[in-house]
Amino acid sequence: MRKNLLLLFCTLLIITSAGFFISSEIKGNTTAFVENAFPMKNADSPSFAAEIDGVAKLEREEDLDRMEWVRSLEVAQCQNPTASFDVVSNCQYGEQFLIETTVTGLGGADAVIVSDNMGSTPQTVTSAGTVVTFGPYPNGVNVVVTITNADDDSCKIQSGNLTQTFCPTDYITVDDTYTVEDLVIDVLIDNPCAQVFNITSSTGTNFAGDGTPGIGYFSGDNTTFPISSGIILSSGDVNDAPGPTLDTHGGGTSWPGDSDLDALASSQGSNNGTNNASIIEFDFIPYTDHISFDYLMASAEYGTFQCTFADIFGFFLTDENGNTQNIAVVPNTNTPVAVTTIRDNAYNSSCSSVNPEYFDKYYGTNGLPANANPVTYRGYTVKLTAEADVIPGQTYHIKLAVADYSDTSWDTAVFLQAGSFEIGTIDLGPDLTVENQNAPCEQSSAILDSGIEASDHAEISWYKDNELIEGETEGTIEIDEDGTYTVIVIYGGSCVVSDEIVVEFAPVPEFEFDEQEESLCGYDSIILDGTPMNIDEFPDMDVFYSWYFEGNEIQGETNSELEVSEPGNYVVEVTTNLGCEGSHTFIVSDAGFQVDLGEDLVFCDQENYELTAAVEGDISGATFEWEGPGLEGETGQSVIVSQSGSYTVNVTAEGCTGSATVNLQFDQSPQFDLGSDIFTGDLEGVVLDASPSNMDPDQAHFEWDFNGEPIPENGPVVYPMDYGFGVYTVKVYGDNPDCFSIQSIEVEEVQITCGVNLTANVDITNEINFCDGDQPAPYEIVFTANYETENATEDVQFVWYLNGQVISGEEGENYTLVYEEEGDYNDEVAVEITVQGCTDSDSLTTQILVTPFETPCTITEGISPGNNDGYNDYLDLSFLNNRSGIEKLIVYNRYGNKVYEKNNYSNEWYGQDKSGDELPSSTYYYVIKLKNEDPVFGRVVRGWIYVNQRVN
Predict the structure, then answer these.
(1) Mean pLDDT, the chain, integer
(2) Is the four-CA dihedral 818, 821, 822, 824 of positive or negative sign?
(3) 118 with 142: CB under 8 angstroms?
């Protein structure tokens, strides 16, 4: 109770709060709002008006603003339409259905719109009682139909989910009282000339202790079963065959199998033998060189036991020499048809599918609804055909057998289509008549086919209206006259079968003349009458009219008469519901004369054209007025034109004007360039492009030849890799095939060779030193791909690799590798070149050590030989000897006088002069000349040094 009160309170709160957000634009839709708030009320009833007043009073007490809003509600006129919906099966065309919607009321609107949720085109309905059909839809989809007021889409109704889960069906019926002779002769063969004898059978009723009838007649009328009637052979009781209950019980153990079926199963690797065999055998003499009959196999084994239980059957055909073949095989194979040789793993995933294209339907898990099954067996194959070539006149024996494999349960059946055992049946089909809506048209012909080929055992004669047609002795005949046609076939010189057919040729709409001239001169409009002169010959046929003006259909004009007010060519096409067609042309002019500018023309590489107005009739004193590009003011009967466009001439004589129009196009030959002959060793990447530069390639036509033979190319581009080396020729034209250009190019095979040698501009094995604490100087190595090619006509392409990875952006013949950080580097630099299919590569590996100098990078700024401590007594430059070598050291005093000099200096100066005497303590200046460029000091070093001779 609390929940209900809370819900009511929230509902009223939402309704009243909504008023503050409603604009004046919804005034015309207040009925929809009020009916939603008070759904059981009628907007036109007095009690409803009283209740609205009550709400208004309540709102006035609580909130004057909301009271004003409620009182302003205007009752709309919108009312919901009404309709009924029906699901209609459309299973004769597949697993599908239709929805029929009957609009029973428009709800006061002038029209309603009917639509669905599946994308069908909406239909507008303007009167009650109209039926709208949507579909077809595949079984199982949910369809919702909506009917909306065309003036106010707030008034609408919807159906619920409408669907059909499966195609409605009756179940087959079975009759086990037929004799086997009746089943073979009257049901399976049904041919009065059939020579059939020695008919025998075996089934459960032949064995004491069982009594199961495994042979019978079945009818599948009004069901979805693929065969309408015929013989059923089952490994169980045929009376259990009607659907939808699953048949699993089988026959008894006293009902044996069959040795031929045992051998057939063994040939497929199944050696457990068969049980419950139903067999029909008979001898027959064929009249044709090919026999056939239609059948399908159904089995309860499908699904659960389709992987291993090879319930099997066979149609064993034996000739006079004792040669036997099984003709119940998977199409285009010698594999016997069995549960294990035609199956779909969608219904049992334990084993793979085998020939699933020949499996038709399964009822049960993952399949169709079980109660939609017209038979008791879970699944069945598509309708198959057993056939064999035979010799007419010889005696053949056939054995039709089916059995369970290994056990006696979960039955299998074979259904043989009635009348399908084809050993010489004729059927000319239904009469070809106007009443049957299948009559051929006059001035045409029809082919009658007996289905029999003439042979030594089949003599064929054709008759028309009971008179022999001389010379017609084949199985087909072409006719072009009304009549009753009869075919008589004499089999074996004695047995006669025949069939006849009535053929009518439907009349074709006819006109007295192909063309008719009419004039508008003196009239605003005239009536063209397209009624055929033989209209009386179509009393039982519908006649349809279509009108065309200057080749374009006039939409909506479907009557026999047409009112016209514009000169030109009008054509009426008259067609009957049998497809018989006639046409008539009306040439309507403005005057009592005809003006003609000829056909539309296209000129190829022509600069101008003389256009002349040809006039038929009396045009004395006529004047000419031209319209078209560049013709302003032209008044002669002929003009010279040079531009593409539409040209019109108006000819006036004696108050009447006639006119004619022509379209002229000045075309150019396509301009394109296939280029020079191509010499290459590899066709990959070679493209021939004939795209014209002076027209849109999409508007051009291309005809290609290769070595003089056409190739299936119709575009501007051809890839020689698809055809090979040779001469390619292309013809290109635009709208005018006579305005074309032709070019040829030869693609010749040559041997392309290439090679590459990778070098570096500096030593790639080196030690790069730097002063500790400083940034190493960059060490650049420029690698160069030195290449050679022969017969190449294209540029070489380069791909550089560093340690096996492509170096992005490096596509030239040089690559620079820079070392500028401390480290021990071993990098492989490789280059690959490619040109016209030829590829070569080379690589180098660097060994670069970037490390600080082991020796100092600075020269001391002072020595102290006078303190007798044995440290810093000499200017020690021996580290330079190990690096660049010292050519000479020169020392100067502060006055610029040279006081010391030594070649190949190392560590000899301790503050003495060139005589060996001790120099006074002071600052001295030096110049060091190096033998080689030093990475730190270069070739010459200048600096100062303080000599301390004081003794501490």
Answers:
(1) 86
(2) negative
(3) no
Q: According to the model, what pLDDT value does residue 378 have?
A: 93
Query: 264 and 374 share a domain?
Result: yes
Q: What DSSP designation does 336 have?
A: B
Structure tokens that stand for 566 in this block: 């514009």
> Is residue 54 helix, strand or coil?
helix
Which DSSP category does 792 fall into? -
Using CA atoms, how far residue 705 sits from 680, 685, 716, 730, in Å, is 20, 20, 13, 6
CA-nearest of 854, 858, 874 to 866 is: 874
**Degrees, nearest 5: CA angle 838-840-846:** 160
Sign of the four-CA dihedral 710, 713, 719, 721: negative
The H-assigned helical ranges of 551-698 are none
Q: How far apart are the first and last CA of the chain?
A: 115
Would you say the pTM of this structure is higher than 0.90? no
In this structure, what is the dihedral angle of CA atoms 150, 155, 161, 163, given to the nearest 10 degrees? -30
Residue 147 near residue 112, CB atoms below 8 Å: yes
- Which structural domain, as residue segments, surrounds residue 734? 678-749
Backbone φ and ψ of 303, nearest 5°: 95, -85
Rounded-to-integer distance, Cα 394 and Cα 420, Å: 20
Final residue in a domain of this structure, among 695, 730, 749: 749
Which H helix or E strand runs over 593?
A: none
Greatest pairwise CA separation for the chain in angstroms: 159
Q: For residue 187, what is the DSSP state?
A: I
Q: Are residues 479 and 611 in the same domain?
A: no
pLDDT in tens, 774-789: 788 899 999 999 999 9
Q: Which residue has the tokens 């514009």?
A: 566
Convert the pLDDT of each residue in 450-463 to its tens digit.
Answer: 878 888 778 899 99
Q: Could you tell me if 262 and 125 lie in one domain?
A: no
Within this chain, do residues 395 and 314 fall inside the same structural domain, yes or no? yes
- Which of 36, 51, 71 delimits the end of a domain? 71
Residue 231 maps to a domain: yes
- Lowest model confidence (mean pLDDT) among 474-483, 524-533, 606-615, 873-882: 873-882
Instruction: Say what the pLDDT of residue 458 is.
Output: 83
Q: What does the block give as tokens for 484?
A: 């009753």
- Two tokens at 651? 């000819």
Report in angstroms the alpha-carbon separations of 393 from 194, 285, 290, 460, 684. 11, 6, 12, 16, 64
Would you say residue 50 has pLDDT above 50? no
Number of domains forming the structure of the chain = 9
Non-local (6+) Cβ contacts of 259 within 8 A are none
Q: How confident is the model at residue 951 (pLDDT cuts 50, 70, 90)?
A: low
Q: Is the CB of residue 394 less than 8 Å from the CB of residue 285?
A: yes
Q: In whole angstroms, what is the distance from residue 721 CA to residue 112 CA?
A: 62
